[in-house]
Write a structure and sequence with these properties.
Shape: globular
Strand content: 35-45%
Radius of gyration: 16 Å
Order of helices and strands: HHEEHEEEEH
Helix content: 25-40%
Number of helices: 4
Largest sheet: 6 strands, mixed
Strand order of the largest sheet: 2-1-6-5-4-3
Distance between the termini: 50 Å
Structural class: alpha+beta
């Protein structure tokens, strides 16, 4: 049986993905606690402080001219949730067609007492996503 979702957790998580999709950096940053730690992805150096958040923002948005991320399934518990998500990103190519790739992952979120995202631990492979984007670009040429 799944725990009942906390509206604050649900709102923060959906806003996180929505802000990335809209490329709304200010909103995305406002969702994070002052001392948030982002593991994007788990295994990489944890992103802390302003410079770390800037690096995560750049990694998630820079490869794409447009990005759409959506929550596929959420599992709530306490002040957090594990979220299965999927994304589609497009990038301009030297031809007239955009390069579009799909990728997915699982992120675990924990919120602080103020409802801000305290921790994100994401399980996905950004290197694979970049390789696929590069391969699609080479094929399009």
């Amino acid at each position: 049986m799944q725990a009942l979702n906390d509206v604050r957790v649900e709102t923060a998580i959906h806003s996180y993905f929505d802000a990335l999709s809209r490329r709304d950096k200010l909103t995305w940053l406002s969702l994070l606690a002052r001392n948030a730690i982002l593991h994007e992805p788990v295994g990489a150096m944890p992103a802390e402080r302003e410079d770390g958040r800037e690096q995560v923002w750049h990694m998630l948005t820079a490869p794409f001219s447009s990005l759409h991320m959506e929550v596929e399934k959420s599992f709530y518990g306490g002040t957090g949730a594990a979220v299965k998500w999927r994304a589609r990103g497009s990038a301009a190519s030297s031809t007239s067609n955009a390069i579009v790739i799909a990728f997915e992952g699982i992120s675990v979120f924990e919120l602080d007492a103020e409802g801000k995202i305290q921790t994100v631990m994401s399980y996905w492979d950004p290197a694979e996503m970049l390789i696929r984007l590069a391969d699609a670009g080479a094929t399009a040429q």
